[in-house]
Structures are given as structure tokens and as C-alpha cells.
Amino acid sequence: MSQIEILLTDSSNVDFQKLAFELEKEQCEHNWSMADIDQDLNKTESLASVLVMYESGLPVACGAIRQYDTSSVEIKHMYVLPFLRRKNLASQILTALEFLAKEMKFKYCFLAAGKNQLGAISFYSKNGYKQMKNFGKYTSNNNICFRKRI
Predict the structure, then answer these.
(1) How far is CA 82 from the centre of its chain?
(2) What is the separation, in whole angstroms, between the first and last Cα of the chain?
(3) Contact 92, 124 (CB under 8 A)
(4) What is the pTM of this model?
(5) Of 16, 24, 48, 140, whose CB has the highest number of CB atoms within 10 Å?
């Protein structure tokens, strides 16, 4: 049985940078809207709260939170290597991000997904996220935004 470890770090972590690059590459390959919109939305610099998941010492998944306002954080850069999907790793990262946000006294998590990212939409819905009006820079009809009280 492989050993799972989740590291709390920041966006300067080399393993996070590699996984975030794979996420962006996948978004471009699938022509998902998140890769086509304002590139500022996908930037990884200056993220103070990043989680990197390791399986047997290898980086396999990541996620981050960014403060949105005084009561909310935005979930960013959720990614699991394709060959390890459907093994509950994304749920573990999401739960850990929500726990971290709650520990930081935030009340809500927000996120955006491309409308063609059906797997992501299903995943967030199954994890208690409710569709909301698009917010911030995600006002394009190509996006679907979600919110959850934590």
C-alpha cells in the first residue's frame, strides 16, 4: 500500500509548479475556457496556501486557496495526475483546503470551472458546492461558479 502525504506550502514549491503546469497544459489541450480567458486568473505566483499531495514520495495532486474577501476564499489549481483520478485524491485535497480555510476563519469557499469541464462540475456538486452567479473575473458564459459554506 502506498503512503499518502499532504504538504502545506506556497506557490514557490517546485512540485506545485510542475502540477500547475500540467493542469494548464490539459486545459489548453481540451480547449477548456479557463485556459482561454484572462491569464491572470491562472497565475500561480503569490499563493500563500498551497497543498501538494505525494504518493510514495511522488507529487500526484495539488490545490490552493486564495483570499477572495474577508469571509471567503477561492479554490484554485485543483489537479490530480490523470492516471490517478477516481481514487479519492481530489476529495482529500478539497477537504484539506476547506479545513485550512475554516481554520483561517473563512466561512465560504468559491470556485469556477469551465462549462465544458463536466467531471469537475460533477465533482464539486457531489462535494456540496452549489452553483451561484458568476463572480469577479469569471463573468463569461464559459464558466460556472460554485460556493459552499464551510
Answers:
(1) 15
(2) 32
(3) no
(4) 0.88
(5) 16
